[in-house]
Amino acid sequence: MRKVLFLGAMLGLVVGLWAQTPYTMNLLYPGDPSPNMAANIAAGPFKDALEKDLGINLKVSYAPWNNYWNKIDLMLASGEKFDWFWTGAGSVPGHVARKQAIVLNDLLAKYGQDILKNIPADNMKQFTFGGKIYAIPSQASSSAEKFNTILSRTDILDQVGVKNIETFDQLLDACAKVKAKFPEMGIFAEVPWAAILREAAPGWYVNWDFPYMIWNENEKTPKVYSFIDQKEIIMKLNKMTNMLLAKGYISDEVLANPAGHVGRFQSGNYVFMSGAVSRPMEMASAVQKNDPKAYMREFMLNPKTTHYRFGASNEALLIPFTNKSPEKAIQMLNWMYKSQDNYEMALFGVKGKDFTVDAKGILNQINPDPVFYEWMFRNNNYMRYPDNMSPEAVADFKTWDKGAVLSKTFGFSFDPTAVKAELGRLGTVAPAQISTAIMGFVDLSKGDTYATAQKKLKEAGIDAFIAEYNKQFAAWAKTK
User: Fold this and answer.
1) Distance CA 475, CA 472 (A)
2) CB burial class (10 A; 0-12, 13-18, 19+) of residue 479?
3) So what's the pLDDT on residue 89?
4) What pLDDT is stored for residue 442 in this prediction?
5) What's the CA gap between 192 and 147, in Å, rounded?
6) Whole-angstrom distance, CA of residue 356 vs CA of residue 301
7) According to DSSP H, which parts of 274-355 are helical?
8) Which residues of 22-42 are buried (b: 16+ CB within 10 A; e: fewer)?
9) Cα torsion 449, 467, 309, 370: sign
10) What are the C-alpha distances in Å from 99 to residues 90, 298, 331, 469, 476?
11) Which one-letter DSSP state was computed for residue 101?
12) Are 345 and 41 a contacting pair, CB within 8 Å?
């Protein structure tokens, strides 16, 4: 009898110890390793909270940005086990088509109440296919007209008496004033054609996942078109950007290396680049390292026309099919959205040590290294505005989406499987041809540049691609 009791006690002890063993959660995260992440998952309040509240021991490895997506694809293809991962919105349909992500509806209903509370229901539609949620749109903040605005150095504009820019003529005037007072400064770090499109062709928008495609929000029936085939729009854009080039507001360096726009603007030597709603916040630290007095705002041309929200989030969190404990992944993500304290701890670290928040809710990051990236989880219910962001930019951001309308494309995701060959060819051919047409360094009113660009896109399969896109788009629209 004693032996039985002893064995029973030992078994209970083993079971108790097993139950107390934290679940090791493995993540692959993009970018360079963060010392702040390493410190917080090794010891301190963040580690303690995950273990105490959720029974989770977090393990994070990193892949450089230029290899992150390849690494994710290899891990998924090989069946390697990891718990959840981030990707861009445009990649979600491919993961769904390849059955690499699990359905989240039941998991969110059971374990993700705080996720659902802080991410609007409309946003969840972005990654819902056939009624099944496959990804969490983790960013829920101001987003109307994203990528269709102009990020501006307002500290420079203030010195030349420019307080607002609403038209292309006002933009030209601002450029002239800056050039006269600060001849050493570059004007545009990149060609702002998408911002100009709001005035050149109101209601027309380019699809950023497939930038050779365009649609018109003013049309009753949702339909997309080949961008290069919209000759009137292309010619208007070309004329306007060519004007910026002719006046010396776009340099040869910008045309020769368009991909270097972020570095150019962050150098502190340029006044404008394309906006993305939140760039006055995201760019502030980098620009101020080179010019401590720098402040920024975003301006929108033709601002009295309708503002559209095209997508809920550029950021998506998925649980791979290899995860055998998906409830743990949802529980951890839900914990991050559960309270202001949890949210701040997961993004910034230890309050008072890594960051402080003043009485007005303004954030001072003592430690600039992130735990998790703020932009990945930016949420209007919890977000903190950094102390290096101007009050005007903060006010803009808080009211940015006021009156915004959901785009006809909101919630639609395209599955490119049927046109993979065309997609590959267009990805090779289209960027150079579209750039040549709209960047302004070639006058399309002369020569055969436009006809050549149009021909090359047709040879690459643009018509078949557009037809397949419209087929899926129309079928989806009928379900709304």
Assistant:
1) 5
2) exposed
3) 85
4) 87
5) 9
6) 36
7) 279-282, 284-290, 326-338, 340-348
8) ebebbbbbbeeebebbebbbe
9) negative
10) 16, 39, 22, 21, 20
11) B
12) no
- Packed helices 462-478 and 420-438: angle between N→C axes, nearest 10 degrees: 110
Report strand pairing: 132-133 vs 150-153.
unpaired
Report pLDDT for 222: 81
Helix and strand counts by DSSP (H, E) for the chain: 23, 18
Q: Which residues of the chain have pLDDT under 70?
A: 1-20, 480
296-299 sheet: strands from edge to edge: 186-188, 270-274, 150-153, 296-299
pLDDT of residue 1: 52
Q: Give per-residue burial for 184-214: e unless 16+ CB within 10 Å, then b.
A: eebbbbbbbbbbbbbbbbeebbbbbebebbb
- Which residues on neighbouring strands pair with residue 62, listed in sequence order? 29
Q: How confident is the model at residue 457, as a pLDDT?
A: 97
pLDDT attached to residue 16: 47
Given the structure tokens 């005037």, which residue do they identify? 173
Contact 85, 320 (CB under 8 A): yes
Torsion, Cα 351 370 320 469, to 10 degrees, reads: 120
The CA–CA distances, whole Å, from 26 to 16, 41, 74, 400 equal 24, 12, 16, 37
Residue identified by tokens 């150098």 is 267
* pTM of the predicted structure, to 2 decimals: 0.80
Among the listed residues 390, 364, 374, 313, the one whose alpha carbon sits nearest the alpha carbon of residue 142: 313
| DSSP 8-state secondary structure symbol assigned to residue 307 | P
Is residue 58 within 8 A of residue 51, CB to CB? The reply is no
Q: Token pair for residue 127?
A: 């990654």
Exposure of 82 in the CB half-sphere (CA atoms within 13 A): 23
- For the segment 92-108, what is each residue's pLDDT rounded down to a tens digit? 888 988 899 999 999 99
With contact defined as beta carbons under 8 Å apart, do 143 and 114 qualify? no
For 317, phi and psi rounded to 5 degrees?
-115, 125
Residue holding tokens 């991962």? 85
**Please, are residues 270 and 186 in contact by the beta-carbon 8 Å criterion?**
yes
Domains and CATH numbers, the chain: 2-141+312-351 (3.40.190.10), 193-249+414-480 (no CATH)
Q: Crossing angle, helix 462-478 and helix 449-460, to 10 degrees?
A: 70
Tokens 């491919």 locate to 94
